[in-house]
Amino acid sequence: MLLKLEDPKFFSNLISIISELVTEVRLKVNKEGMNLVAVDPATVAMVHFNIPAELFSQFEVEKEEVLGVNLDNLKSILRRCGSGCSLTLEKQDNVLKIGLHDKIKRDFTLALIDIEGEEKEIPKWEFKSVIKMDVQSFVDAIEDCMVVSDACTFISEPNKFIIEAKGLHSARTEFSSDEVEIYSDSSIARFSLEYLAKFIKGAKIANRVELNFSENHPMRINFPAGKVTLSFVLAPRVEQDD
After folding, report:
1. For the whole model, what pTM was predicted?
2. 82, 111, 140: which is the final residue of a domain?
């Protein structure tokens, strides 16, 4: 296996975002590209990404490879990759060779690890509410809610979408169908801001966000970034009141 990225910034950003949620993961590489599905230790959230083979300037894979990687260690190496630096990833025995090439050639080796557990897949659900919006507006609404509570509520109607949090204090952001794309019946769902605070780091790679949810049902958040896929799934908070 030998992979090369001429501009690895988006890959570095992906690893940084995902490492907020999970630490030890299986990176799968096959002829279609690189992908990951992982569940956080509390089994509350799931993350998925896919990078198609065509985004790599060099992509040599004879068979599917599964790379057990500590993301904190990988992230530390990727931070050494500056502007104008290309990145190569090569599996040799039980190590991942990582090459950073700019004016000089620097090589790192990352020991691969065995990760136990069942293989996971992103569930396929139908949702009553789908909201498509500017990612910064979503980030601002979530950060507003974080000021006053540890959970927020998504309220969607055919022509209105609201994100609000209530505690001793409250915060509320309301969007109309003139400002965001709304495909919805009436749905109300409540989610942990601790996790949403990690998910909104997807703004590093995407200008838009897609929220998919139904009442008392897990939510899927997609950050579309060209041909790269980044998605999160989050279980709802079940208590009735803040």
Report:
1. 0.93
2. 111
